[in-house]
Amino acid sequence: MLLSGPAGGTRLVFRAASEKVMMVMVARVLRFAIVVGLWQLSGPPGVAAADVQQSRATTFWTTGDQLMPAWGFYPLQASYGGTRPLGRHAAWCSAGNSGRLTWVAEFPRQAEYHVWVRNYGGYGTVTVLVDERPLAEGRGGSGGARYVWRHAGKIAVTAGRHHVDLDVKMGMFDAVAFTTDASLVPTAETLPKPIAKPRLRAPRTYRDDSRLASRATATGIVAGPVVGFSEVLYDWMPGTKDKPAFDRLRMWGSANQYISETFAVRALREIPELTVTLATLKGPDGVELKSDRIDVRVVHVRERKNALFRPSQVRMLTPEILLRDDRTTLPPRGKQGGFGGGRCVTRIPAHESRQFWLTVHVPDGSPAGEYRGEIVLGDRGGMRLPLVLDVLPIRLEAAQGYYGIYHRNQTTNAKAAHHVSEERYLAELQDQVRHGLNAATLYSGFSVLGLARKAGMTRAPCLMHWPDGNAAAQVAAARKMGFSDLFYYGVDEPNQPEQIERCRKEAERRRATGLHMFTAINSKVAQQATRDFIDRPVYNIYVFGGPDNAEVMYARKKGFRPISYWVSATAFPLPYRALTGLYNTRCGYLGSSPWAYQDFPGNGLYDPDKTTHKVAYPDQFGHPIPTLAWEAHRAGIDDVRYLEALDRAIAVAEARLKQPNPPSKLAAVLEAARGVRKQHFESISGRWLEYFCKLVPGALDQSRRAFADAVVKLNTVSR
Known about the structure:
By secondary structure, this protein is α+β, with helices and mostly antiparallel strands.
């Protein structure tokens, strides 16, 4: 029999038996010994098979449509040279611009990977980075007016999750493939099924912040500048090109403005509670802006479905909600809505970051000059960041246009889905006024006209129903309250022939009685049928867009007041700055009224899988919490206000030149101001999708500052 021997060996013990039995046992033992010997030479069974499996090539890939939405890209389905996108569409830099797509890819094993990119071969380039490391030894490939695969290079990668960044310059990107097979050329036959619904965002934990240690010895944090409305996640770090120390935050603006600025903080160790406070700003002539005029918030980043041109297929990290305290789940607890207080609080884990958003309201009539304060991060021993607000000597008037938003909430029907209290409704209207709106859409009807006036609305509200026999009295009452007029809604988005005809007849009837029709038009057929009758049209800017849009200008020549609409979302913020701002004005519109302030009033707005139309969220008490997209909306209106200030200054200068003895430098300064207007406004071109794609964070800030500087120079010289 077999027994265990010393050191795990085997010894044989034979008991008395017949010779035949003995021979059988010896044969079995010899067979066992041979197997053991072979095992010792070649390894245990299955290892050779595993080696074969390990040596097989690993290939995985995905398509451009799966990596969208991403800023700078439009979904393009077109075919070229007999080739079409391998997914539903390619990612197109539609304005000859650049953009970045990101894929958080799972690499199954450590190896050297060859990287192939499929894009339009006629023009454009794609640069691939893995954890911000470049590829090497790319072999390229064929070109031409079709989609082609090109070898982008190779790179050694460890097993696990890695960030793949695809920097696309012009052209159309369609797919990227990784393979350990150096001889593989991607084709339909050689590639496995593409990875669907890949992860698009994750913290870049590979970033090393040890270089910041000397700047964070006392507080454990380092602050730095960021560009407003850029994508700042919790992995932000000060750039290597930044100044060694971020020694102050500078803001600028004018009286009669809500002025915003942003910065970020990186923590090198865990900060369980970080309070950020700006208590006061002291300006010229003893003027002091106290905390009720200062709003300090932390930008909350969360996993949610996002949207740009089309909704994302997966949740992705999105900077979105501006909270006073982000140490909470959503819906957030506590008093998070409203404005003022000068304080917010957050928690920052080690090697993470947070972005902060500051808004200062400088009342009308405040003197120009520097307003100084100090942002305190932490307790008394925390970091102190000086703040300098430069209030320019500009008379910044309210926007000339009509700016509203569809706002379905109402106070009159307690059983309706959109019912809210009068307190909440007033708070929402006040929030709209703070964000530059001057007109309200009143779904509760005439009964809440007084609330709109109390909130600070100045332009003619629209009652969201047809006029009845009380219309004349209601218009008179609105004017007595201080409104210029009162509008009534029409047939919403008429598309069927009977709807269009009904809308046309009603518009004619109202014009005959001196009433105005305010209604949304989203088709060219409806616009053609009603363009001579609807005097307060709300045109879909995606249908009626482009500089000096023909349909918009036709309405204006008729003496009508066309404004635009689109659909809101708390997604990528920059489109909303453009859609209510300079691009909207360049199209010829005299204002805007997008859909919608909130689709409904409840906590369902927080659902991460629904890109519900909204610009603000309700807090625990129903008061509105702003979002980055809502701040961008106000920024767009302010861009127009500075353009209008420039136009007024140009008009004054032109008149002064016609008077005796004009200042010697005025003509040159005026010509420069006209150049600023041409460069930053008249040059706006293209369809909305092209303008969006080439718009980059910071560009509209530069345009606004150019307008402001030109105004100051003209005002100085014109005196």
